[in-house]
Write the structure tokens for this entry.
Amino acid sequence: MNIQLNINLCFLKQVADTLETGLIIIDQDHRILLWNNCIENHTGISSDQAIDRDVSTLLHRRSEQWLSHQIQMVLNADKPSITDANIFNAINDTRLQIFPEVKAFTLSTDSSGQEYICLVVNGISSSAKNNLLLHGENEKLKEQIRRDSATQLLTKNYWLQCLIEQFNHSKTSGISSSLVIFDVDEFKRINDQYGHLAGDEAIKRLAYSFRKTIRNSDIACRFGGDEFAVILPNTNANEAYIFAELLRKKILNLDKAPNQPQISISVGVCEWTAEMVSEREWFDKADKALYMSKKKGRNQTTEAINIDDEEEIFSR
């Protein structure tokens, strides 16, 4: 590159960097001479990384032969050429975006007789904004699908995926975690006596207290109806039991409006152990502990413990 061309490109780069339009200049060998800020921001590829590279290496699913043909058409044409909207789909793992329109035309030759191609990429700003908005809406939709609308807790299906992940993490790391499962005592009687609207309101009050009791790292869900569950990472059986009792007492003492039922819960607790073969076994043990709390009179917490490879469930 001669000195005069280098100086011209430096001045041109300063101007080009102020534009919201992408600007690329290449020579007839497809070597990039200028790559402005708008292109940098859109592709995540800096000017320093792009300069002197063959532009075809930055294109998605387009061969060098095809690009050579397009450039030759521009060089032979008397007017600018509008290229395919999908040409400059820059390869970038985090921001793979399509440029809406690329206009290509020749620049005046320098003293050496060399011709250059200027690629003007239009619509980048609006395209990027639209993609970001779409990404945001998709994330909101995903969150809505994962959440139970009445309680704002995770749904059963999503929580079960989290349970598998936590089981595998504990199995790999050896760091224990615990499950706590509970449901509302005599919820059918509450619905029959006070009505379903009162029952729904009771569930919402319970869920609010539940959300306020768990830590940010805990993974809680509405498992179905009046049944709830939470994964307590890095928590042993004793700590999980303390948490369960705290939650049980808070729910028992919830303030209630006139003609609203008082609610209590029965709870089952189970710590992960290395002997467990699956997340289903882990869940089943906690569920059986919950069943024992019901059987022994409700409104209490029961812990599942393994002794000599035989499961024994008892209440503290």
